[in-house]
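Q: Here's a chain of 148 amino acids. Please give me its 3D structure as tokens.
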Amino acid sequence: NYNYIFMLGVWQGQYWFDEYKNIPEILKNRKTSFNLYINEFANNNFSGNVQDDLETGGTPGIGTINGSVMGNNIDFVKKMPVRSAIFPDGQMRTLKGKHPKIHYSGIWDQTTKTLTGTWKIKFGISWLGIVPIIHPPTKGHWIARKQV
């Protein structure tokens, strides 16, 4: 199964924000690097881990991914273990609760061994002490290349 061989392994990628009205200035035009480690694939479903690069604004911790491939379409959910946010002063802060799920979708190109698509986080609320922090819906684009 070509999908099986194609999907398994390490993918290096970047994600970035599309809308700038709800995000701190420091995140505008920033591309955050990440690695996907896809270690299970069966019946068009896959799972693995993800680790963002903290130097480029990533979320701390090693997360999980679960998704599926249908034809050239790929969909997966990224779950990070630490809820964090970058505040307007540019500082990353950890917040109580789980990080919101990040929904990725896209297409893969067999020729270039590249995945490209969009990601989104739904509206949410978290707490910094007794202060509620509103997280508006956020979205962006991503790209990842299979490492050989």
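Q: Can you summarize the key feature?
A: The longest helix spans residues 2-7.
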